[in-house]
What does this fold into?
Amino acid sequence: MAIAGKAVLVTGANRGIGQALAAEALARGAKRVYAGAREPVAHPDDRVTSLRLDITDTAQIQAAANQIESLDMLINNAGVMLRDDLTDPAVLEHHLAVNLLGTHAVTQAFLPAVTRSRGAVVNVLSLNALAPLPLLMPSYSVSKAAAFSLTQSLRALVAGQGVRVHAVLPGPVDTDMTRGSDIPMASPESVAAAVFDGIDNGDEEIFPDPASAPIAARWRDSIGKQLERQLAQVALGSS
It folds into this structure.
């Protein structure tokens, strides 16, 4: 789906990948970009509408949904990443509250609008949805794996309504979350461009940077992807 002339909502749009995604959507001719953030800021482009949107706040989600009459693409980008060692359940619960349940809540609120436009839902996840970093951020990895399963389930459930669902699985990206790391990182701008290229190509999983790109072809032919396709055909309620 080309973004030109479309309306798109980006959560977590005030920095990092979210900010780059909003800018890339504008560069590709989006007619309206809704930039959601916990602390929204004014934007010089009059095609941008800033929204106060904490994805864990039910009232803010509903207020944003009431404000947006039509929507072609929802990009769930907002998230949290904290280092831990799985000893504190509160840290795991916080990751799940934001990265899984927040993403789910926003999707449910805006899915009717996206369905009406036969549009797309794009969930920005992580390579750690496929394999964890247990010595650095296991709770983050758990939450992204859960969000990936959510993405796959939603994909099967809405396919018959003409809605496409994409999972973005980047490697390390140079954002506030990864600041201070000494590993090679992709720029948010390059990742954003690759995300929209993947959407245009109809890629269900998008691997948008040098660290993740080599996995793309192998993932499409993997047993995991084959099993997803197989199980998506199982009729609901069948015995």
Observations:
- The chain has a mean pLDDT of 94.
- The two ends are 36 Å apart (CA to CA).
- The beta strands are 7-10, 32-37, 48-52, 73-76, 120-124, 164-168, 205-206.
- Residues 17 and 148 are 18 Å apart (CA to CA).
